[in-house]
Amino acid sequence: MDILTEKLVTLLITSLRSFKSKLQSVGGVGSFSHVQIETLRFVARHDRTTMKMLADYLAIQPPSATAIVNGLVKKGELARKFEASDRRLVLLTLTPAGQKTLVSCQTFIRKHLRDFLEQLNATEKRNLIHLLEKLND
User: Fold this and answer.
1) With a threshold of 0.70, does the pTM exceed it?
2) Which among 130, 133, 105 is positioned nearest to 35, based on CA atoms?
């Protein structure tokens, strides 16, 4: 890895940690971890979400996904539903409380991300947009 790439990696990680620290300091996501919010987001975006799909998305082992889901079920954010044709297949769905939590967390994160990016001037924002678009193509 060349020195510029290494510097970018370091700065990206530092920026993400800084943003995460700011989010935690203002407490807007409450008692929800990043992984729990990502779990809610994934389930909301995918019909017929299974534990395997979730574990694959989060790049974790199924028992770890089960632990995350158990916590969200206990909080009333997710529900497990058994497939009528195959009771071994468990589908995950958001509860109304989970939908509300997800919207609230996403709104909070977007607001603070906007605040975080306000440190940049218009030219820097355009440059960042260009670079991020290039990386996401």
Assistant:
1) yes
2) 105
